[in-house]
Design a protein that fits this description.
- This protein is α+β, with helices and mostly antiparallel strands and 471 residues long.
- The chain has two domains: 375 residues, Up-down Bundle (Outer membrane efflux proteins (OEP)), CATH 1.20.1600.10; 79 residues, Outer membrane efflux proteins (OEP).
- The chain is 61% helix and 11% strand.
- The protein contains eleven helices and six strands.
- The strands form two sheets. It has a four-stranded antiparallel β-sheet, with no helix packed on it. It has a two-stranded antiparallel sheet with strand order 2-3.
- A hairpin with a 2-residue loop joins strand 2 and strand 3.
- Helix 6 runs antiparallel to helix 9, helix 6 runs antiparallel to helix 11 and helix 9 packs antiparallel against helix 10.
- It is elongated, with a radius of gyration of 38 Å.
- It starts with a helix and ends in an 8-residue tail after the last helix.
């Protein structure tokens, strides 16, 4: 009796052991704080993960495009379908942790020829044998002493959670991609209007120059200079129209269908998102708010659980099969006490020799765990870099916009002064052309840097783990 209790205690102890490595987050592979000159006070401002994207985006057209994309984008549809697939796989694996009940009923009627047997006894005259049975059975159910089934269930759950987090990460990435394409479209559209106005102005200047050439007031050189400036503007206009078309095509793919013609009007460039400051926070906070990091951590959990399942294959497998029901040759007496039947049968499988298959499976599982650790650390480093890039852009792009605004205004005054000096006969028309060309370039550069600043703000929101919420 004591030996039996000792064996039961040993089995209980083994059943309670954990063959899978414990889940411990690796050390943070980045600095504990963002650069102070970029982040400022990390706690000052709004937390990105607490701001729904609809509250963050203030451009009505951009908001409509993002909303349509979250419903129709094919990549996001695939990500959501994978969530359902992973959820189903988890439910299938979870079902292995409880016994399966199956009901069966059977009825047979057999004719026995003379000289045969009925019920195991010889029959000289033959006859008819009838048999009826009904039972509830438990097919082979594995007693999970070593945690193999439990670890497989944990791995399936972690994969499901990883897929769910990956879908949220895909949605945030989609918001950034749409914003980039949309801002490229808005920038190109703004630059096109500027280029069109410039082309009209230079065509007028060319017409005036040709008239003055006929009157002998200017040389053919000045006319050629005006014409050159016009062709440069026309070339830039064609390139901008191509850029706008390409961005519109990219938006169509990202949105998942043709762009509606009744979209609300766009906001001016640089007014696409709220200007409320976003708090940088600490890099460690990204572990809980960045969905791509959460997905990487869940995949690491799954890899460690699979190690436990692979190690459990070295231990004996115990399965139980049982059945309880009734059997009788007479239907009336089938469910009587005399017709009660039952069966119970444990089975034990002990691995002996498999040419290293189990050891190889453990090696594979451990290698995948190391891969998952590296991917988790890489996800953290990528997130740190994206946030740091966004913080740097928030500071230095703002300075660049301010400087370019001053430069554009100064160039505008210079162009006006050059034209006045030309009209007064102080300088040649070449100085006017140079000033106007520089003004055109400065205005185009200002639109470009404003687009970069707006795109960086949305990228920072996404990098800090912006909220998708429920749409």
């Amino acid at each position: 009796m004591l030996e039996r209790y000792a064996m039961l205690g040993a089995l209980a102890a083994l059943a309670g052991c954990q063959l899978a490595p414990p889940h411990v987050r690796p050390d943070l592979p980045v600095a504990a704080e963002y650069p102070r000159e970029l982040a400022g006070d990390p706690l000052r401002g709004l937390r990105a993960h607490e701001i729904h994207w609809r509250d963050f985006i203030e451009d009505a057209r951009l908001e409509a495009l993002i909303g349509a994309a979250l419903e129709r984008n094919r990549d996001l549809t695939l990500a959501i379908a994978r969530i359902d697939e992973a959820r189903g796989a988890f439910r299938v694996q979870r079902a292995d942790r409880v016994p399966t009940l199956a009901a069966n009923a059977a009825a047979t009627r057999s004719k026995i020829v003379a000289g045969g047997t009925i019920g195991g006894f010889p029959s000289a005259s033959g006859g008819t044998l009838e048999s009826r049975s009904a039972a509830i059975a438990v097919p082979a159910f594995e007693l999970d002493f070593w945690g193999r089934v439990r670890n497989l269930t944990d791995a399936a759950l972690a994969q499901y959670l990883a897929t769910e987090a990956a879908a949220r990460a895909a949605a945030l990435s989609l918001i950034r991609s749409i914003a980039d394409a949309y801002l490229g479209w808005v920038e190109a559209d703004s630059r096109i209007r500027l280029a069109e106005a410039t082309v009209r102005s230079r065509r007028e200047e060319l017409a005036i120059a040709e008239q003055r050439l006929e009157a002998g007031a200017v040389s053919a050189l000045e006319v050629a200079q005006v014409e050159t400036l016009l062709t440069q503007a026309e070339t830039e206009l064609a390139a901008l129209r191509l850029e706008r078309a390409l961005n519109a095509n990219a938006l169509g793919v990202l949105v998942g269908g043709p762009l509606d013609i009744d979209l609300p009007p766009p906001a001016p460039l640089g007014r696409q998102a709220t200007d409320a400051p976003l708090a940088a926070g600490l890099p460690s906070e990204l572990l809980a708010v960045r969905p791509d990091i959460l997905a990487a951590e869940e995949r690491l959990r799954a890899a460690r659980a699979n190690i436990g399942a692979a190690r459990a294959a070295f231990f004996p497998s115990i399965a139980l099969t049982s059945q309880s029901g009734y059997s009788s040759t007479e239907l009336d007496g089938m469910f009587s006490q005399d017709g009660n039947t039952w069966a119970f049968g444990p089975s034990l499988t002990v691995p002996l020799f498999d040419l290293g298959r189990r050891r190889a499976n453990v090696t594979i599982a451990e290698a995948r765990e190391r891969v998952a650790v590296a991917e988790y650390e890489l996800a953290i480093q990528t997130a740190f870099r994206e946030v740091a890039d966004g913080l740097a852009g928030r500071r230095y792009l703002a300075e660049q916009v301010a400087a370019q605004e001053r430069a554009t205004e100064a160039q505008r005054r210079l162009a006006e002064l050059a034209r006045r000096r030309y009209e007064a006969g102080v300088v040649s028309f070449l100085e006017v052309l140079d000033a106007e060309r520089n003004l055109f370039d400065a205005e185009q550069a200002l639109l470009e840097v404003r687009r970069a600043e707006a795109a960086n703000l949305i990228a920072l929101y996404v990098a800090l783990g912006g909220s998708i919420g429920e749409d």
